[in-house]
């Protein structure tokens, strides 16, 4: 196997959303050092977004206003989805965009329960802002995130009636990792998180001192009447946090099957809690060239990579219903993770059902693309041409012969190429 | 251009009932590629339907942590009422099962099956050192091991004892639950509505594209296998789904107009019933219902969910009567944990420990098994575990799947003798 191709393909598909036409070849010519630097180069970029608004209280059922209210809500939710998918495709900063996606799966919050688009959009802005920033500041911002609070019943957590949903997940899934705290820590942390109200429709948080438990709590060995900010700083300062975040980044970017090695360089790199330092270390790690570390592209990653290769903008596809339907059937809709643990990995995306939907989706996308460039290549060279175009390491003899059989039909050729095991899996 | 809105009422308003579930199964290993010819499997499925009388297991997973105390309710215990004001039921609405336990008011269907001795309720089920994380606890239940990082599921290890066959175990939905992941082979996933086999030129090309390749790494091999299985599973299953469900004439009237309910679970079980009736060579089916994580406003939500469970399972068994296979089927219903005895004040309950497990079917010896956990002798505020879930698994492996439990669970002594020999 050509190791430069392997590493280059991984840099494009894992730390970004796959190459645009010509980018892969150009990266190969520039060499790995330059490609790594390019991946890590983040340009200042203003994100343009539609305006998402607080629709105010929901009108009574059966009132005349409810129809327009619901219609506007659905429209904004569609816009939100299309806006983000477009960002993934057109971004000039693939790493930042990919890290935003990673953090969405980390602080996994779903529109399914939050219901209103504004809090979800605001959360996305926060995920973007800290995507490669400082995790200590990030964690503080996320505690004050309305969507996360609504998702985990934060507004229901009061001195009289503590609710442990947020406190448990913040330790288990967001900051420390499972079993790195006691059940008592969960209960005590919930007490220190009391004292907030959250507006459902806007996600705005406000303090409510009479709901606040001002008593002393003990969390991971530290006692006192701590504010949420103090106790979150205490959590982020734990050694388990320094290990947990590198573990999660490794799990999504390198391998979900092989655990992060003990004393891996990313752990010491994360001492300052700077996310970009962690990712930079990982990008330069030998793990990136180990053939054991293959991963499956999730449905959204696959779709966005196809759109980038084919110059398709999700918002410009002829049917939103169709797009939504395919992503839903493939079980991955941005803003709707299946639960607070985020999306599954690898084999979970490889059922025979998803093979069917992926093929139908691919057929549709290939029919919408302008394939004149591929058609201009001599039929005999097309299969090899696709390797660099799509950023694939190599074709197996199996796939090579399957593709050659349909090389005279560019649309069919492309459909099969993006459904091949070599494309579905990041080798 | 944006077409008409597609967010459903459920996605916008009823999240607690529809929240899709999947559990993170950390460290799930890529199974080594199962090399099978499509024709072999297709041939087997059409020419050797499951012989009548072969026991079939249907596993119903309730994701989110079902509140056992509001399912099988200690309705004469004053501590029960005192511990959870606002989320208890009026005693007169319940279905008494014994002097001190009664079923949730939404479970009339299960109650009628109980009355004919077709329901076993195993009380206080859990495992040592309960884990209150959804993900870890579900991983423990599905792996059948107290190490949540174990990389195979209990039914996946059972599959490993079986001949290679993608039809042996099928999960409804497009994502495979970890319980069906084995080392040598895993179960297949089947979406509602069946699969469409690619045909014509593209079908032939897909068949070539999904052939085994010696250079595939394990995930690429799995990707190829999933496409290959598409042909075998779908060519057998799709025609069957087009048939109307065979329904027995003596279908009891259950829950009035709800009998044909449109919850997702009802659809899943309807498909399973049709496939079983048609003779699919499948011994294990997996279905699921999510939304049981009732931290807030529990009573109404849980009632609706349990009502869906009760109605769907009852309808499912009735549907099978005409096929002659209803007596072959055993349904196992479990959740990753129960919930705290004391309410949390958002009129909900937080994560707890032990809960009841249901076994339903003609082969079940109806009645109670395991001790009811005491409401006074709590462990950290939670119910004590009185039965290990692996006791139930061991019995199912031996009495339903006819496989030595040791092959799946290692040496395991406990049994829950709720299945007739």
Automatic annotation (TrEMBL), chain A:
Pfam families: DUF1800. InterPro entries: DUF1800. This is Unannotated protein. It comes from freshwater metagenome.
From TrEMBL, chain B:
PROSITE patterns: TAT. InterPro entries: DUF1501, TAT_signal, TAT_signal_bac_arc. PANTHER family: BLL7424 PROTEIN (PTHR43737), DUF1501 DOMAIN-CONTAINING PROTEIN (PTHR43737:SF1). This is Unannotated protein. It comes from freshwater metagenome. The lineage of its organism: unclassified sequences, metagenomes, ecological metagenomes.
């Amino acid at each position: 196997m050509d190791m430069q191709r392997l590493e280059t393909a991984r840099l494009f598909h894992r730390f970004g959303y796959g190459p645009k036409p010509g980018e892969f070849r150009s990266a190969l010519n520039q060499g790995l050092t330059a490609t790594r630097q390019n991946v890590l180069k983040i340009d200042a970029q203003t994100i343009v977004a539609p305006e998402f608004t607080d629709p105010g209280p929901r009108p009574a059922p059966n009132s005349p206003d409810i129809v327009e209210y619901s219609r506007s809500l659905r429209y904004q939710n569609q816009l939100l989805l299309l806006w983000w998918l477009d960002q993934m495709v057109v971004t000039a900063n693939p790493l930042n965009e990919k890290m935003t996606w990673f953090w969405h799966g980390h602080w996994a919050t779903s529109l399914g329960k939050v219901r209103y688009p504004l809090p979800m959009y605001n959360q996305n802005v926060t995920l973007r802002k800290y995507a490669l920033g400082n995790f200590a500041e990030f964690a503080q911002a996320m505690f004050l995130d309305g969507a996360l609070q609504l998702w985990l019943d934060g507004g229901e957590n009061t001195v009289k009636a503590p609710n442990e949903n947020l406190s448990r997940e913040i330790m288990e899934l967001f900051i420390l990792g499972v079993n790195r705290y006691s059940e008592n820590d969960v209960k005590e942390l919930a007490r220190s998180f009391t004292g907030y109200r959250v507006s459902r429709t806007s996600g705005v948080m406000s303090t409510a001192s009479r709901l606040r438990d001002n008593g002393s709590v003990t969390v991971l060995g530290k006692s006192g009447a701590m504010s949420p900010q103090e106790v979150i700083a205490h959590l982020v300062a734990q050694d388990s946090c320094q290990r947990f975040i590198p573990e999660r980044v490794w799990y999504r970017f390198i391998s979900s099957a092989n655990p992060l090695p003990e004393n891996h360089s990313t752990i010491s790199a994360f001492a300052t809690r700077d996310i970009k330092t962690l990712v930079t270390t990982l990008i330069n790690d030998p793990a990136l060239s180990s053939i054991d570390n293959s991963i499956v592209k999730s449905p959204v990653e696959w779709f966005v990579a196809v759109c980038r290769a084919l110059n398709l903008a999700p918002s410009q596809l002829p049917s939103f219903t169709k797009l939504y339907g395919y992503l839903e059937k493939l079980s991955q809709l941005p803003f709707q993770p299946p639960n607070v643990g985020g999306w599954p990995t690898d084999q979970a995306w490889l059922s025979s059902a998803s093979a069917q939907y992926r093929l139908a989706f691919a057929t549709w996308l290939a029919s919408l693309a302008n394939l004149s460039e591929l058609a201009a290549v001599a039929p005999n060279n097309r299969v090899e041409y696709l390797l660099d175009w799509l950023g694939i390491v190599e074709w197996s003899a199996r796939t090579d012969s399957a593709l050659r059989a349909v090389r005279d039909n560019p649309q069919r050729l492309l459909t099969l190429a993006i459904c091949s095991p070599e494309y579905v899996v990041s080798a | 251009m944006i077409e008409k809105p597609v967010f459903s009422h459920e996605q916008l308003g009823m999240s607690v009932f529809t929240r899709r579930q999947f559990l993170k199964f950390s460290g799930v290993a890529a199974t080594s590629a199962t090399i099978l010819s499509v024709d072999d499997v297709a041939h087997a499925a059409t020419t050797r339907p499951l012989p009548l009388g072969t026991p079939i297991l249907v596993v119903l997973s309730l994701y989110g942590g079902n509140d056992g105390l509001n399912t099988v309710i200690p309705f004469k215990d004053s501590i029960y009422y005192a511990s959870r004001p606002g989320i208890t039921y009026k005693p007169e609405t319940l279905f008494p099962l014994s002097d001190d336990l009664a079923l949730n008011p939404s479970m009339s269907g299960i109650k009628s099956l109980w009355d004919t001795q077709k329901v076993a309720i195993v009380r206080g089920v859990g495992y040592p050192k309960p884990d209150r994380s959804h993900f870890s606890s579900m991983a423990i239940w599905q792996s059948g091991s107290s190490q949540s990082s174990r990389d195979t599921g209990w039914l996946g290890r059972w599959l490993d004892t079986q001949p290679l066959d993608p039809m042996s175990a099928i999960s409804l939905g497009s994502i495979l639950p970890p319980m069906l992941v084995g080392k040598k082979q895993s179960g297949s996933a089947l979406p509602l509505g069946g699969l469409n086999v690619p045909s014509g030129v593209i079908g032939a090309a897909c068949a070539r594209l999904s052939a085994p390749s010696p250079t595939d790494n394990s995930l690429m091999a799995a990707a190829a296998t999933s496409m290959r299985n598409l042909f075998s599973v779908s060519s057998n299953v799709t025609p069957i789904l087009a048939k109307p469900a065979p329904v027995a004439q003596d279908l009891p009237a259950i829950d009035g107009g709800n009998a044909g309910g449109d919850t997702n679970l009802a659809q899943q079980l309807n498909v399973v019933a049709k496939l079983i009736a048609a003779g699919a060579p499948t011994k294990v089916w997996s279905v699921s219902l999510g939304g049981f994580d009732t931290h807030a406003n529990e009573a109404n939500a849980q009632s609706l969910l349990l009502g869906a469970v009760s109605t769907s399972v009852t309808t499912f068994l009735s549907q099978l009567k005409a096929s002659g296979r209803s007596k072959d089927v055993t349904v196992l219903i479990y959740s990753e944990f129960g919930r705290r005895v004391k309410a949390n004040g958002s009129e909900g309950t937080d994560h707890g420990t032990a809960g009841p497990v249901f076994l339903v079917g003609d082969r079940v010896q109806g009645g109670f098994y395991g001790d009811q956990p005491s409401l006074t002798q709590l462990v950290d505020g939670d119910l004590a575990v009185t039965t290990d879930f692996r006791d139930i698994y061991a019995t199912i492996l031996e009495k339903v799947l006819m496989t030595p439990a040791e092959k799946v669970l290692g040496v395991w002594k406990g049994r829950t003798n709720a299945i007739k020999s």
